[in-house]
Amino acid sequence: MNSLSDPRHSSEPQQRDDLLACFDAGLAELDLVLAEARDQLPPTLSGPDGLAAGVAELRDAMSLISAYCVDYDIVAGILRDHAEGLADLLCPNAAPMKPRRLVVGPCPDYLGDLVPLFKAAFDEVILVDSYKAGQDLRGLKIIDPVRLGDIGEDCACFIATITPGIADIYRGLFPAGQCVTSFDLLARAPGWWLRDETAGELARIGAAIQRAEQPVVLVSPTFSTTWSPMIVAMQRQGRDVFLIGMGDVHDPRGYSTLASKDVPVTDSVMLSLPEMLTLIGQIPGALYLINSEGFFHPQWDTRRSVLCYAFGMLLAHLAGTFGESRGLALSKSVLFLYDPIKPVIENPEYGALAAFFYERMLRNADGLLYNSATEEIGAFLANVFDLKNERAHFFRYSVAPSMLRERLEEERHIVSISAVLDEFYEPSRSRLRGYMRQVVEQRIHLHYYGDYETYPRILEFGDELPDDLKRFFHVHAVIRDQQALVDEIQQYHAGWVVHDQQVFWRIVTAFEDQFSRDIFQLFPSVTIPTSAMTYGAAGLPIIINRCMRGSIRQFPPGCALAIELSEIRALGRIMEQSDWPVVMQTARKNRHLFTAAHHAPRLERFFAALMAD
Q: Which long-range contacts (C-beta less than 8 Å, at least 24 apart) are formed by 384-389?
């Protein structure tokens, strides 16, 4: 492998040329796929008023690959670098007069440090934001856009958000000829992807990866806590694992993501997406695990899933081919699929187009790692799409308890480490609040691990209970450390995995294309929730939906109590009839089946076969 040189020095032009060549190769492939999509889609979808009308938007988004996931710091950096010429930078056309006023909307927090620059460049600065109206930002009062009035020709307009839907709203508010977006700044700022302050980090992490004998590079904007046991097990198998991330934040919902300092990898670095691709281009011959959905999450929206899959298609292509033109060793790209396919319910008319790009994404990868799904889904997709790439199924296994802890002896105690109290939008976890109350009303203790400071509805659930039932609801702080979590929850009697599975039947009936109907019908039976594996490693039996057959099969016979929502009112009686002490004893005896260390050799065989090909 070539050594990674400092991109600020003599190799910078070559690096940028290589990166642009990488973009061009990926975009050329995207154009071919788009043309194929137009040819294959039925007339109702491919006509000028159909789904293909959005193809230009997709192509434009991919032309700056990071258009939907660019870091605010980069936008702020471009504005600072052009502080003395902001009026020209934010005026898109050659206007007859220099703009005296600037309207900025919406108002993300990062604008605070930029307000003095705006004030120095313009006679008047107006901040607009429908949600922050009335707030003060560095001495300027934010107003509601409805109070903006006539903007006038002597005014420049800057759309400061990187969220596509919100940007579209402000495009409708501002005159097109006077409007500049964050994405426009990126396109007009040569070399914006290489920041001086991260050049040293690029060199450091690149050299470390090249020194490693068996490097695995995880490419993901965030790091899920549920990956920690697998990462540790991989390192014990002799792999060095590196994380190329995009942000150092964690999601407060449950215990879903970690800050970088808590990630158990060999080394990590936080980069912008273009810097990520620059690094990938300097290190051929590596094994890349790509979490594509982390860059552009569908959020249960089929239209968003089109971009998610198209983006994953390009990432897999670029990671697997970058370096080939220079005669260097080829890298291997593995799609690290958090779910086998992302569940979606909004805009089902985009189903055929989403399925089209989903197939292309799977085809572009050298390997498929179904992080939480049974082998059944891999076989289904291989049959449907005639896939030849290597695949593995690794169920987000957990860790063994560091020491055994006695179970609580008084009454029954159930634990939930995933959202079931409707604290945020999650269709498959919705409508459960009343059912969880039925659990408590049977005088079964419910131990709930959640971020109650961010989501007060958790505490409200307890406040709404009658006084004689309040002692049966216990709120605990989130535990993101997998070892500490397993050690903690082994004291309880069962883990809760019952969700609102009816949402998947609604998804099936909403779609018209057969593939979408088939795969979402399969989804509940092939998907393995993380919480189930964590409960199993802690030696707990689970209470789970009957339709989740894939998860049930992972447990020893009798250790998965299968029920549906209408049975919850009889939960206490059902547990009593199941001879629960024997069930708990069996689950504890077989807890080793749910540890990542137990299954790591299988994952290592997958990696070895992939790199030997």
A: 384/515, 384/518, 385/359, 387/362, 387/363, 389/362, 389/363, 389/365
Three-state SS at 110? helix
**In percent, how much of the chain has pLDDT > 90?**
39
Confidence of residue 313 (pLDDT cuts 50, 70, 90): confident
C-alpha distances in Å from residue 268, one per residue of 28, 201, 245, 285: 31, 10, 7, 19
Peptide bond into 106 cis (omega under 30): yes
Token pair for 595 = 């540890």
- Tell me the C-alpha distance between 571 and 552, whole Å: 18
pLDDT at 71: 54
**Between 113 and 572, whose confidence is greater?**
572
- DSSP-derived secondary structure letter, 4: P
Question: H or E element: which one contains 158?
Answer: strand 155-159
Tokens at 436, concatenated: 């969880």
Residue 432: phi, psi to the nearest 5? Answer: -100, -10
Alpha carbons 557 and 574: distance in angstroms, whole number: 16
State the Cα angle at 194 between 188 and 196, rounded to 5°.
120
DSSP 516-533: HHHHHHHHHHHB--HHHH
Q: Which residues of 387-407 are buried (b: 16+ CB within 10 A; e: fewer)?
A: bebbbbbbbbbbbbbeeebee
Percent of the chain having pLDDT more than 70?
79
Residue in 373, 275, 232, 250 with CA at minimum distance from that of residue 69: 275
User: CA triplet 525, 526, 530: central angle to 5 degrees?
Assistant: 105
Q: Which residues of 80-91 are buried (b: 16+ CB within 10 A; e: fewer)?
A: eebeeebbebbb
Strand 136-137 to strand 140-141: parallel, antiparallel, or no bridges (unpaired)?
A: antiparallel
Tokens 């959020």: give the residue.
Answer: 299
* Cα 289 from Cα 513, distance rounded (Å): 30
State how far the Cα of 349 lies from the Cα of 598, in Å rounded to an integer.
43
Say if CB 55 and CB 32 are below 8 A apart.
no
Residue 123: CB atoms within 10 Å:
10
* C-alpha 235, offset from chain centre: 23
Average pLDDT, the chain: 81
DSSP symbol at 5: P
Q: Report how far residue 610's alpha carbon sits from residue 613's, in angstroms, rounded to the nearest whole number.
A: 5
Most confident range (mean pLDDT) of 215-229, 302-316, 376-390 is 376-390
Q: List the structure tokens of 390.
A: 């290597």
Q: Which of 126-130, 285-289, 533-537 has the highest mean pLDDT?
A: 533-537
Burial class of 296 by CB neighbour count within 10 A (0 to 12, 13 to 18, 19+): buried
CB 215 within 8 A of CB 209: yes
3-state secondary structure of 328: coil
